[in-house]
Amino acid sequence: MANRSYLYVVDEVPGQGAPLTRVSGLSEWNWDVPLVHELLVSGSGRLVPSTIWDAPAAAILGDYDQGVANLERLFARLPQDRETQRQIAEARSVLGDPENRGRYLLLEVAEIHVLSATDDENPHPEMLREAQGMVHDTEQHVDALIRAALELPPEKLQELTGSGAWASNLYFEPSGEPQQPTQAAPTQAAPVAPAMSSPSQSAPPTSTNAPQFAPPAGAPASPVFLTRPLANGATQWSLGLIAVIPFPFVTAITAGIVMIAAGRSRAPATEAGERNRTNAANWGLTYLLSSIILIALHIAFIFVLDDTYSGSFFPIGIPITLWFAVSVTHIVFSIVGSVKASRGVVFAPIALPFFSPRLRG
């Protein structure tokens, strides 16, 4: 239940048109891109199209042997205590295994960088700039990265060694078959689609506001695709605020229906995003049913009890009071849910568990 940084081994350069014959998992890290991942793709590092997400999502490609050599430069300067050396030995065992070795290391960072993008409509320029900032393609860049690594406190040791994060079965396992996207007009949006079994070979955008991929010499230009960000569930929660529009009852029911419809969207989402929008749909259904029942009870109480309790707010006002309390709770949940979801955190209030998240793999 986290956004991840994924590290793969490949033998070809993504985006050159031919299928990748190998995309092997090596490591994944929750909620951040650890320095060990950055160092491992620091050998002649460059941006390439993502093998998981449609263009213009970017990944970072680096030479396998150079990356391992750069990591060894860091290892040589780490403390000699037993735990540090154990973690270094673990990394060397994985990276030196003939089954894991390849020509390149590929770092997929889109799931991490989408969390920090401030433009929900088009986060890709920011995401590409962040990815470009992680490209360490010169000795000076690598030296700076190693210096930054050595300044980390001892409790961050695993971020330098990758200990506990080495794995061959990652959350996404692209098969290496290229996708065949259809061309879209530059002013239209085409949805991002996770390619769990077929990585995208689409070319990057040509925006002058973001770093661009360097296509191989003589390669034909590919169409540009403007895409939506990976869903995090914040939109589904924020739709609950429709209830604050001053049309009593009507907007409450509308908010519940809209949250259910949006929450069952099949648009690509992070794992946390899928859980958030499912939780929003479940709460929307809970609020919708509560509103219908309490409003119906209030109307019934008016017809049945009005003669008996004429001039008295209670007990006739009990259902409407409860509905008001539920509505206040709904508004609070909508605000808290949208804020937490925008930060990549799952918000799960008590609600009818009618829907289940459609998790991948």
Mean model confidence by pLDDT: 78
Tell me the β content: 5-15%
Number of domains: 2
Structure classification: alpha+beta
Shape annotation:
elongated
List low-pLDDT spans.
Answer: 177-229
Proportion of residues in helical segments? 40-55%
Short description:
It is built from 11 helices and 5 strands, in the order ββαββααβαααααααα.
Give the arrangement of secondary structure elements:
Blueprint: E1 4-10, E2 23-30, H1 35-40, E3 46-49, E4 58-63, H2 64-75, H3 82-96, E5 104-108, H4 110-116, H5 124-133, H6 139-150, H7 157-161, H8 234-238, H9 250-263, H10 271-305, H11 318-342
Antiparallel strand pairs: 1-2, 1-5, 3-4, 4-5
Helix pairs in contact: 4-5, 9-10, 10-11
Keywords:
single chain; 361 residues; alpha+beta; 2 domains; 5 strands; 40% helix; elongated
Describe this structure in words.
This protein is an alpha+beta fold and 361 residues long. It has two domains: 1-230, no CATH class; 234-342, no CATH class. Helix content is 40%, strand content 8%. It has eleven helices and five strands, in the order ββαββααβαααααααα. The protein has helices spanning 35-40, 64-75, 82-96, 110-116, 124-133, 139-150, 157-161, 234-238, 250-263, 271-305, 318-342; strands at residues 4-10, 23-30, 46-49, 58-63, 104-108. The chain has a five-stranded antiparallel beta sheet. Strand 3 (46-49) and strand 4 (58-63) form a beta hairpin.
